[in-house]
Specification:
The protein is an all-alpha fold and 481 residues long. The chain has 18 helices and 4 strands.
C-alpha cells in the first residue's frame, strides 16, 4: 500500500509538473522565434515519463543482451542441433493459417507487443509530447531521417558495386533503444535527460520509418478479405475505446488477437496490427483538470512495457540471434556484399547520417546546440544509434529467402551493432564527468520535498545551489548577448 505522504508528494509533484510545463512551453515558444535547442532539457512531466520508460527499457535491454549472448553460445556449441530443432518446431491452428514455427511465433506474434508499445509512444509524442511542436521535433526528425537514408544508401552502394541482393537495403535503418540502453547500463554512464530524450525520439522516428518500410516493401500478396476483416476489427477497437470508452482487458485482448490473426493472414506483416492498436489509444488524460489523472495510453503502456522489454524482445532475440560465429562463417560475412553493406550501414552510415543531419540542420536553420553540451556529445549519440538489433534482425528475415544469406546478414547486424556499441562507449565515457554533473543538477532536491529544485521557483534560502546555478546561467546569457 502506498503511504499517504507518498501520495501527497506525487500529487504535489504532478501539480508542479503542470506549472513547470506551462512556464517551459512559454519559454520554448519564445525560443522558437530564434531557434530550437538541441539536447535541451525536456519539461518536468516529460522527464518523469522519460525516466519511467527508460528505467524499464534499461532493465529490458540488459535482459536482451543476456538473451542474445545465450542464443550465440547455444548456436555455437555441440547443442546447436537442439537450438535449430526448437527454433523450427511448428505448432498452432493450421485451419486458421497459424501453424508457425517457434521462430515465427517469436517474430510475427510475440514481437507484436513491442510494436504495440512503439505505437503508443509514437501517438503520445505526436499528440502531447515533444514532437507536437514543430520547432522541437525538427532536429530529431531530421537526424532520424538522415540516419535511415544514409545507411540504406551505404548498403545499396556496396551491393551495386559487388552485384549483391538489393532487397536488404532497409536492414541497417533502425536503432534499437532497448539494446542501446542496455549498453549504457553496462558501462554505467548517466546521460542527462536532454540526450536521453533525443535518443528516444530518434528511436521512435526510426521505428516509424521501419514500420512504414515493413508495411509497404515487405508485404506479400494481399488477401483482401483478411485485410478487410483486420480493418473492421481496428474500427471496432476504436469505437469501444474512444467512443464508448469501454474498459476491460478481457474485451481488448481477445479482439487484439483476432485483429493480429487477420492481419497475419492478409499478407501484411502481423506486427503492424500492434502498431495500429497502439496508435488508436487515447493519450490525453480523462480529466485534464485533475493533476492525478492519467491517460488510458499512459496507464496501458505502464502495464505492457515491462512485458515488451522483459519478455517479448528477449524471446525474439533468443530465437533470432543464434548464428554461427566460426572463423569461416565470419570471414564469409566480411566477403558477402549483403553482410558487408549491413555492417557499414550500421557502423558508418548511422553515424554519418545522424551526426551529419544534425549538423546540417543546426548549420542551415535557427537551431542551436544546448550551451551545456558540445558536438562531441552528438557524436556519441550518433555512434550509439548504430546499434540496430531487434528491427534489423526482423527485416533480415523478411528481406532474404536463402538461409545462408539470412544467417550472414544477421551476423553482420550483430557485428555492426557491437562495433557501434564499443566506439559509443568510449566516446560517451570520455564525457561522463560532464554528464554526471548535469544529471546531479537535474535531480538535486536540497529542500527534500520530492520535487527537483530545477523545476521550482527561485528560492536562495531553501535552494541556494540551484539559485547560484541560475545566476551563473543568467550571467552567461548576458555575456553571450
Amino acid at each position: 500500500m502506498t503511504p499517504p505522504a507518498a501520495d501527497e508528494g506525487r500529487t504535489a509533484a504532478d501539480g508542479h509538473d503542470q506549472q513547470q510545463d506551462q512556464r517551459q512551453d512559454q519559454r520554448q515558444n519564445q525560443q522558437g522565434e530564434v531557434g530550437a535547442s538541441l539536447f535541451a532539457r525536456p519539461s518536468a512531466r516529460e522527464r518523469r515519463l522519460l525516466s519511467d520508460a527508460l528505467r524499464t527499457e534499461t532493465v529490458g535491454g540488459t535482459v536482451l543482451l543476456v538473451a542474445a549472448v545465450v542464443a550465440l553460445i547455444w548456436a555455437n556449441t555441440p547443442l546447436a542441433h537442439l537450438y535449430e530443432t526448437v527454433r523450427s518446431f511448428h505448432f498452432g491452428i493450421p485451419a486458421l493459417g497459424l501453424d508457425l514455427s517457434v521462430e515465427h511465433w517469436a517474430s510475427d506474434g510475440i514481437l507484436t507487443i513491442f510494436f504495440f508499445v512503439a505505437g503508443i509512444e509514437l501517438k503520445r509524442e505526436l499528440t502531447v509530447g515533444e514532437l507536437r511542436r514543430p520547432a522541437a521535433a525538427a532536429l530529431p526528425v531530421v537526424a532520424a531521417a538522415s540516419g535511415m537514408v544514409v545507411p540504406a544508401l551505404c548498403y545499396v552502394v556496396v551491393n551495386l558495386l559487388d552485384h549483391g541482393n538489393l532487397n536488404g537495403w532497409a536492414v541497417p535503418m533502425a536503432t534499437d533503444i532497448a539494446f542501446a540502453l542496455g549498453v549504457l547500463a553496462v558501462i554505467g554512464t548517466n546521460l542527462p535527460s536532454g540526450i536521453r530524450a533525443f535518443l528516444l525520439t530518434l528511436a521512435i522516428v526510426d521505428d516509424l520509418g521501419a514500420i512504414l518500410v515493413i508495411a509497404v516493401f515487405y508485404t506479400s500478396t494481399l488477401n483482401w478479405a483478411a485485410f478487410a476483416g483486420a480493418m473492421a476489427g481496428l474500427v471496432l477497437f476504436r469505437v469501444l475505446h474512444v467512443n464508448l470508452r469501454l474498459r476491460g482487458w478481457y474485451v481488448y485482448v481477445p479482439l487484439g488477437v483476432v485483429v493480429w490473426a487477420l492481419m497475419y493472414n492478409s499478407g501484411v506483416h502481423a506486427t503492424i496490427a500492434g502498431v495500429a492498436m497502439g496508435l488508436l489509444l487515447r493519450v490525453k488524460p480523462d480529466d485534464p483538470d485533475d493533476p492525478e489523472s492519467v491517460s488510458p495510453a499512459e496507464r496501458i503502456e505502464h502495464l505492457v512495457r515491462p512485458l515488451s522489454a522483459g519478455f517479448a524482445v528477449p524471446v525474439f532475440a533468443l530465437f533470432a540471434a543464434g548464428v554461427g560465429v566460426s572463423a569461416s562463417a565470419l570471414s564469409e560475412t566480411f566477403r558477402q556484399p549483403e553482410a558487408l553493406g549491413v555492417m557499414l550501414g550500421l557502423f558508418a552510415g548511422k553515424f554519418i547520417g545522424v551526426f551529419g543531419g544534425t549538423y546540417l540542420a543546426a548549420r542551415f536553420t535557427r537551431a542551436r546546440l544546448s550551451s551545456d553540451l558540445a558536438w562531441a556529445d552528438v557524436a556519441g549519440v550518433a555512434m550509439l544509434a548504430g546499434i540496430g538489433f531487434t528491427v534489423s534482425l526482423l527485416v533480415s528475415e523478411l528481406a532474404f529467402q536463402g538461409a545462408a544469406v539470412t544467417e550472414h546478414t544477421k551476423a553482420a547486424v550483430l557485428l555492426g551493432s557491437l562495433f557501434s556499441a564499443l566506439v559509443a562507449c568510449v566516446l560517451l565515457k570520455l564525457r561522463d564527468a560532464k554528464y554526471r554533473a548535469l544529471w546531479e543538477e537535474e535531480t538535486r532536491d536540497e529542500d527534500r520535498d520530492t520535487i527537483p529544485d530545477i523545476d521550482q521557483e527561485l528560492d536562495p534560502i531553501r535552494r541556494p545551489t540551484e539559485a547560484a546555478r541560475r545566476a551563473r546561467e543568467q550571467e552567461r546569457g548576458r555575456e553571450t548577448d
